[in-house]
Design brief:
- Helices cover about 0% and strands about 40% of the residues.
- The chain is mainly β and about 290 residues long.
- It has a domain of about 200 residues: Beta-galactosidase, Chain A, domain 5 (Distorted Sandwich), CATH 2.70.98.
- The chain has a 9-stranded antiparallel beta sheet with strand order 7-8-9-10-24-20-19-14-17, with no helix packed on it.
- The longest helix has 4 residues.
Length: about 290
């Protein structure tokens, strides 16, 4: 039997989180308007998976630790693993995933990953707390993968939507290889004009847009005359932007880490973009979503 989503609410918003993956399934305003994807399986049935302990693909889905191979699929195992609900109130919930015999078969490290969801008026705060519960180093990456409705509630035309970054983003963007998911060495010119990126399905014909060195730590997603979302992600220096072309969602994905670069064949601990925690150390990653109704 599937897990029942956990519901939390403020005076302005309601959210539902699936314990499998600690995945945000729904974010609605007081009028019942939905700001998340419709998860149409014709395009993609995800909602907002958590990416841990890797972001993106490993070469041949292979993680090498001390010369030993482990099999780890794209985006890691957290998104398909049941978290324990360890705390719940009317407006907040905390979910926890710890290492187990099953996780150590594919990722030989001790960890605790808490996902905390809290509503405060029109804002949803999500905080990932990663703790090294072992005696050695803990190498990992972490990423958010929320899929927001495109268009958002209101009467704005889909073609009018854009992202407005907090800072100018002139640097080139990266892509991944379609067959392997590995980060391609070539960069391409940024589609951002100053701080603005008009959204169009054509952007995603070559898969995701990836910023490996993002200047901004906040952006606005929306269209004139419609609703908008303000996203703040102070702890993640990278960003992925993705959809299946033509779908009714846009994934705005703050990351710490990315796929293996094409040609990378080294130990996991030297993979670009990793965080490495010492015993007992912790690191947090926050994503705040503020809803501005139409």
């Amino acid at each position: 039997m599937a897990d029942a989503p956990i519901a939390i609410a403020s005076d302005a918003l309601s959210a539902r989180i699936n314990p499998v993956g600690a995945e945000l399934w729904s974010l609605t305003d007081a009028a019942g308007a939905e700001y998340m994807t419709d998860a149409d399986p014709a395009f993609w049935s995800g909602h907002a998976p958590i990416l841990f302990p890797v972001v993106g693909s490993l070469a041949q889905d292979r993680l090498v630790v001390d010369g030993r191979d482990y099999g780890l699929p794209r985006h890691g195992f957290a998104r398909r693993t049941r978290f324990s609900l360890v705390e719940q109130g009317a407006d907040h919930a905390r979910f926890r995933l710890c290492d187990s015999a099953a996780t150590r078969e594919v990722y030989p490290f001790a960890f605790q990953l808490d996902m905390v969801f809290r509503l405060d008026g029109r804002r949803l705060d999500i905080v990932a707390e990663v703790t090294n519960s072992g005696e050695g180093a803990l190498p990992f990456s972490f990423g958010y993968h929320p899929a927001f409705a495109w268009p958002l509630p209101g009467n704005a035309d889909k073609s009018a939507y854009s992202l407005t970054f907090a800072e100018p983003e002139p640097q080139p963007v990266r892509r991944v290889a379609r067959d392997t998911g590995l980060l391609l060495p070539e960069a391409e010119p940024s589609p951002v004009k100053g701080r603005d990126l008009p959204l169009d399905a054509v952007l995603f014909r070559a898969d995701a847009l990836i910023w490996t060195e993002l200047h901004s730590r906040a952006l606005r997603y929306g269209a004139p005359g419609g609703a908008s979302l303000d996203l703040a992600f102070p702890d993640t220096p990278m960003l992925g932007l993705w959809q299946v072309p033509g779908a009714r969602y846009i994934c705005i994905e703050p990351w710490q880490g990315h796929a293996d670069p094409q040609g990378f064949d080294g130990e996991f601990t030297v993979k670009p973009g990793l965080v490495i925690l010492g015993p007992g150390e912790a690191r947090s990653f926050r994503l705040s979503i503020t809803v501005n109704a139409a």
